[in-house]
Amino acid sequence: MNSIRFAVFIPFAVAVAVPYFANRYRKIAAWFAIAAPVGSLWALIQLYGDWNAAGRKAILHTIAWAPSANLEVSFLVDGLSLMWGFLVAGIGFLIVLYSHWYLHEHEDMGRYYGWLIAFMGSMMGVVFSDHLITLFIFWELTSVTSFFLIGYWSDRPAAVYGSQKALLITGGGGLAMLAGFLLLGQATGEWHLSRLIAMPGVAEKVSLAAFVLIIMGAATKSAQWPFHIWLPNAMEAPTPISAFLHSATMVKAGIYLLSRFYPILGDHPAWGYIVIGLGMTTMIAGGLLSLRAFDLKAILAYGTISQLGLLVTLLGFGGKEAIIGATLHLYNHAAAKAAMFMVVGIIDHETGTRDIRLLGHLARKMPRCHILAVLAAISLIGIPPMGGFITKEMLYGVSIHPGGPGNWAAFWPWLTLCAGIITALYHLRFLGAPFWTPAEGESPKPGHDPSPGFLAAPAILVVLAIAFGVAPWLIQDAIIAPAASATLSGGPPLALHLVLWHGVNQPLVMTIITVAASLFLYWKLDAVSKFLDAAAELWKSAPGPNKIYDGTLFILKERTWPLLLSLQDGNLRRYMRWSMTIPALLLLTAGLWMSWGPGIWPSFGGVTVLGASVCILISISAVATALFPRRLSALLALGTAGYAIVGLYVILKAPDLALTQIMIESATVILFLLAFWYLPEIKIAPRTAGRKTRDWAIAIFLGAISTAGMALAMNTRHYNFGTVADYFMRTSKPVAGFRNVVNAIIVDYRGYDTLGEITVLVISGIAIFAILRIVGTMQHDEGGH
Q1: What is the 3-state secondary structure (H, E, C) of 570-630?
Q2: Closest by alpha carbon to 268, among 183, 194, 329?
Q3: 64-80 burial: b if 16+ Cβ within 10 Å, else e
Q4: pLDDT (0 to 100) of residue 399
Q5: CA 367, CA 346: separation in Å to the nearest integer?
Q6: CA distance 386 to 333
Q7: Distance CA 49, CA 54 (A)
Q8: Domain map of the chain by residue range?
Q9: How confident is the model over 580-587, as a mean pLDDT?
């Protein structure tokens, strides 16, 4: 099963290496980057063969990570993951090919291709992950990598805003999804998707909170209302990025999540209401918003939101026909919409604008682009012989006899028909304004068809969209049926018979109505636009999602700034007061909840007079260190406390610790003395009686709480659970090979922690040294002048 590792991890390896080559061999940078999708496709073909040889049953592959913590990297290979893998890697290949002609030579090739390929690897990890935590990690990696891709042109404020918006919304949804995963794992005791799918009655065990949190993760990633607002702003990314992330992969991740969880949570009482509600609202809202946009990419972005809503609604209704329709439409939409994005990129590249008001009669100037745009658009409208016609017929067929809760099914045919008409209308507008009608203004450049290489990627996608319609048997048994079967229950592949022509039936009538109504509305487009503008004017005063998002950010940035300044003002005394008082209050709250009482205090029967005397000496020395006004006196008191601890170790029969403490204490005193040589005298700021009283009160409170907390920790038998110390004492010799338990803890059990502390200290020392060098150089330069 090395193929699955290769398919998922080769993009990350290429992403690390490609910046080095891309910035040195700029003209052929794409040919270095294309190794990632080619390698993943090769591995996927091997995986498909293994899966087919295994009787098309799910194959599991696990890489041990931290078994004791129930963490592992596990992959699930089945019909659904393979379909998504081919989709991600295949379109990734075409995007890299397209980028070769799209990017200018002065662009930062290394950064572009590095993040692009890293995103592809993240998506591969999402679709093949079997463990919930592994899925979450790859899920968040898609948000992080997309942040850098959307903000690629970081000198543009709109790109920075769009990337931040996408990260906050999708990243926040990912955290909500993680919380849902944790609740799901706690409720079922299982963390593997493959086992959850096979486990009966999971939906009955899952709380509504866990269900909503998981759905929120899918909704934010797939731009469902009201979380759709990040997608239009993400169009500030380069067009190849938009074609990859926002039509075929990232926004479809939420669809994948719903598909994967359908056999797990599909029987939950809230599934139909929440999922269908999200999908229907998004489907209509996205289409209407698309009719008001003037940027070609914005038109496609809102159209994508509408199509995502359609897919979500189908998954909400569920059932065999709906799942098959959603699976087929997923492939057709990915191919056609990616092709349309690429055509828009060519138009922008050759004319210098995407504003439809500045574009006109491009059908004459750019006939090849026009043909590709028309074919891709009619595929999404659902006109034969394109693959979209089959999916539209299936969608209309499902709408007539769907499942779903309550009486929603009665409205579904009408809502689907309305969505189909709106979809056709905004695609006609997408074609009409730039290609067929005269421009209202003048574009920066006249525009012309590009080189054949630039057209290759969208042409391949359009050919695929045609092939889905003319020869659907090419993918029905190999890809669509296994994926739909895995979505339904993971059972044997379904038997499909996809054909372009089903005769005269209700779906065909609905298709004819869709085309006729959309053509009529396109003829009356000015009236439609005025109506939508009037509706938007009424909506303007309402607190929409964008206003809520911007208002929240404004409050976080502007209103909380005075509070932040009051807390982070450089006053070390205030920092210590807050950082120590708040944990003490939390400890006090926990103690009250656990009913602190006389029973928590440990027995003092084994305490000797000598041991108590040493502890009193340590306490007096510590207090003296804080009270002495001169550094040397404070240092002597500190040293006394340290050497008194040595005595305590001797009493407790820990000679190794005593010797170690002697060395540390001696070195500490010497280093402090050397540091004091260069430091000025202490200047004690005068304190009022009120401040002294407050400081003493805080100190006594902290001391009392710390003492009570320590007593509680020492007397854990009162609560019938063991301690970490018991574990260390029991295992240090047989497991770690140490006779000295403390040494075992420092260099073995907490070895990485110790190494991390050393690393932090080294980095801090280097940083301080660099700052002192810079300050010294600046002072020298000022003195020289």
Answers
A1: CCHHHHHHHHHHHHHHHHHHHHHHCCCCHHHCCCCCCCCHHHHHHHHHHHHHHHHHHHCCC
A2: 183
A3: eeeeeeeebbbbbbbbb
A4: 79
A5: 12
A6: 11
A7: 9
A8: 290-523
A9: 78
Sequence-ordered strand ranges (E) for 616-678 = none
Element (H, E) at 424: helix 408-431
Give Cα separations from 435 to 281, 339, 427, 429, 730 (angstroms): 31, 16, 12, 10, 78
* Residues 146/245, Cβ–Cβ less than 8 Å: yes
Predicted pLDDT at 595: 54
CA-to-CA distance for 288 and 534, rounded, in angstroms?
Answer: 13
Exposure on the CB side of residue 220, measured as CA atoms within 13 A: 22
Which of 305, 334, 309 is closest to 86 using CA atoms?
A: 334
Q: How many CA atoms lie within 13 A of 125 on its CB side?
A: 24
Residue 471 pLDDT level (bands cut at 50, 70, 90): confident
Structure tokens belonging to residue 505: 């039936």
Asked if residue 126 has pLDDT above 90, the reply is: yes
DSSP code, position 77 = E
The pLDDT of residue 117 is 93
3-state secondary structure of 349: helix
**Is 427 in contact with 377 (CB distance < 8 Å)?**
yes
- Return the DSSP state at 58: -
pLDDT of residue 67: 66
Identify the band that residue 258 occupies on the pLDDT scale cut at 50, 70 and 90. Answer: very high
| 595 class by beta-carbon count within 10 Å (0-12 exposed, 13-18 middle, 19+ buried) | exposed
- pLDDT tops 60 at residue 598: no
Cα 763 to chain centroid, rounded: 30
Cα separation, 486 vs 496, whole angstroms:
14
The encoded tokens of residue 250 equal 């990232």
Amino acid code (one letter) for 473 = W
Q: What is the pLDDT of residues 6-31, one digit of tens each?
A: 888 999 999 888 888 877 777 778 88
CA nearest neighbour of 88 among 302, 243, 263: 243
Which span out of 132-136, 527-531, 549-553, 670-674 was modeled with the highest average pLDDT? 132-136
pLDDT digits (tens, 9 = 90+) for 657-696: 788 888 888 888 888 888 877 777 766 667 777 777 887 8
Closest CA to 375 of 442, 470, 512: 470
> 68 is written with which tokens?
């004791």
Q: For residue 779, what are its two tokens?
A: 């002072």
- List the helix and strand counts (H, then E) for the chain: 35, 2
Cβ atoms 218, 211 nearer than 8 A = no
Peptide bond connecting 200 to the previous residue in cis, omega within 30 degrees of 0: no
The structure's pTM equals 0.78
The pLDDT confidence band at residue 128, using thresholds 50, 70 and 90, is very high
752: which residues sit within 8 A by CB, 6+ positions away?
A: none
What residue has token string 């599991």? Answer: 60
Is the pLDDT score of 785 beyond 60?
A: no
pLDDT band at 272 (very low <50, low <70, confident <90, very high): confident
Closest CA to 345 of 243, 447, 428: 243
User: Cα–Cα distances in Å, from 616 out to 613, 623, 661, 693?
Assistant: 5, 11, 19, 24
